[in-house]
């Protein structure tokens, strides 16, 4: 299957030499080709360039194109295998092409929505107060035990279809609403099935240490022991997770708990990606960096010391604007972090409690509106840096030859800046994942 997109108003983030991530001033760099074509075949990006180069080439024999009005002749340089084979052509006049979003932090496998808690929150209860009353994550864990794997799979698949429509091409999904061995494994097996059956690229994270179950409140380390000695070995045995996560924050898991869990997971090859510094200067950022985490996420409480620690690391700082917005929290100092030279990823945190939306276009807008990222910086944060934060930046996150053909075509839009500016509506018209129109 081959697709040729022609007359692209702007081909965004098209890189001849792909970067694995962008940091500091580099985040403002968004390579773009005007009036471009993009050729994809066998699920991969094969070629792109100026339209003028496409139509004047005569190095290869003309390939047949399927056009509504019959057949046209066109040359794909360097790809003689295209000769004679059918190529679907899409005319993108007035429209732009972007790499699909990489959403590096979600909890989108969950049993039920939690809008009643949200009403409590409007009436004045804090996230921590709701959690202390057995609401929040514990509420989801209770429902998780009563929900079948089939129901979880069906509802999560609907959410995946929804996020594809908004332009997401890769997503990380965490467990963490099980909080006992059986339910954690159930969640992870559902994620594995989603991986096998969805066109999205999916990475799976084991988050047994998401909250302390009520029965272990007085003996937290006993629960940590279960995570380490029982859950992690079983998760590894069935190869159910790519990464390991801990909610390292005030009222949840301590730095000591976190370090014990991360080192246990790493023995089984699970790289850390952790929740840190959402509720306080918890030491979570330092713990993540110490264990060479792929990313540390949330980061509302990030000061000079944390910035310094991150500057000396390979860890991707990841901000979750949806959660800070929805919970009315302080915003992470994104501008200061980029100005200090750090890279930054933005992710949705799609979950039923703190961020019930997986719409990455909204996250892009929030990145600009609430965190003062320029449109270019925000686009890099939801594409290449998101890809890095989920360990896939060598195959996703930008338009580069050899990367997966995961892209979206916009509706007719005037400028790149229009993407974050025109917030709240869907600017994506067509999504192509692994070279297939969705
Ligand atoms: O990333 N902060 C911890 N965990 C989730 C919230 C999950 C929930 O409330 O259900 C988060 O925001
Ligand atoms: Fe989260």
Give a summary of the structure in a few sentences.
By secondary structure, the chain is an alpha/beta fold.
Poorly predicted tracts of residues: 56-62, 64-73
The CATH architecture category of the largest domain equals Alpha-Beta Barrel
SSE-based structural type: alpha/beta
Please, what is the CATH homologous superfamily of the largest domain? Answer: Metal-dependent hydrolases
Main β-sheet: number of strands, strand sense, barrel status?
Answer: 10 strands, mixed
Mean pLDDT: 93
Number of DSSP helices? 16
Q: What general outline do the C-alpha atoms trace?
A: globular
For the record, give the distance between the C-alpha atoms at the N and C termini, rounded to a whole number: 14 Å
Task: Provide the gyration radius in Å.
Answer: 22 Å
- Highest CATH level, the class of the largest domain: Alpha Beta
Count all strands and give the number: 18
**CATH fold call of the largest domain:** TIM Barrel
- Total domain units: 2
Q: Which small-molecule species are bound to the chains here?
A: N-(iminomethyl)-L-glutamic acid, fe (iii) ion
User: What proportion strand?
Assistant: 15-25%
Please give the share of residues in helix: 25-40%
